Amino acid sequence: MPSRTSATSAKAVRAAGKSSPSRKTGKGKLPGKKRETPWALIGAGVAIVALIGLLAYNLVPKYMDQAAIREAQTDLKEWVPTAENKDPSAQIEGVVTQEYPAGLHVTPEQRVAYDKSPAYGGPHDAAWANCTGTVYAKPIRMENAVHSLEHGAIWIAYNPDKVDAAGVETLSNFVKGRQFSMMSPYPGLDSPIALQSWGHQLKLESADDARIKQFISALRENPYAYPEVGASCSNPIFDANNPPPFDASPYGPEAVPMDGAGLTPDPAELGGAGLPGMPNIPMPAGQ
User: Fold this and answer.
1) Structural contact between residues 145 and 233, judged by C-beta atoms closer than 8 angstroms
2) ∠119-124-128 over CA atoms, to 5°?
3) 3-class DSSP assignment, residue 31
4) Whole-Å CA distances, 115 to 90, 100, 119, 142, 144
5) 3-state class (DSSP) for residue 96
6) Is 121 helix (H, G, I), strand (E, B) or coil?
7) Domain tally, the chain
8) This prediction's pTM
9) How far is 111 from 83, CA to CA, in rounded Å?
10) Positions of the region Disordered (predicted)?
């Protein structure tokens, strides 16, 4: 039989249980702070992601453009001239050649009755078109362009009605900033593209033709293939933004003939003249 003390204790426990608060789930917990959203941190993260995206948007295309230019301007070793193979372009299908007298100068007002279009040799203006990797937006006077060829430059001419913007961009990659090269539109050209060096020409249908790189590798500054070896392509007074204009009108009877009859060859341009002095750079037409 339970003792009086045990009975009393049991009653006390039951009384305490009745008087204590209910322990239902969710009740009786200590109140805590409301969790705040870290908007500043989220905003910083979004800004960083946006910055990375912006940099990628601007830098990746530029990197790809530079890579395309480097690839276009890397000469093909098998087409680079040597003492044993002075004119590798002879192996390029479609290249035509012609011998021309050198050092025959006309005045800025004179025209030459060129026998080729575009011309790639013969009498020319005393001022050469700047050919330090110049991409001309306007057609240039042929008499100035031919003088650049005499200095060892490559001239890429294209028909603006036959070459689209993507093709122009592809062609410009061969030229941009590259010494002894230049490029310009040539209205009325009978093919989409024509490549010229002194005494050499190659006409093509596409800016993606592999022969473009072969031609440039073989003939750009080829010391065996142009008369004025050592001459500069820089002509800072030749305005690339406003060059002497291309004249598409028929030649008149006053045009200088291709044999240069009546002209005296400039001895400084025969056999290589070295870098000409700045004071002797002739002014182009219209200056």
Assistant:
1) no
2) 100
3) coil
4) 21, 11, 7, 12, 16
5) strand
6) coil
7) 1
8) 0.74
9) 37
10) 1-34, 244-287
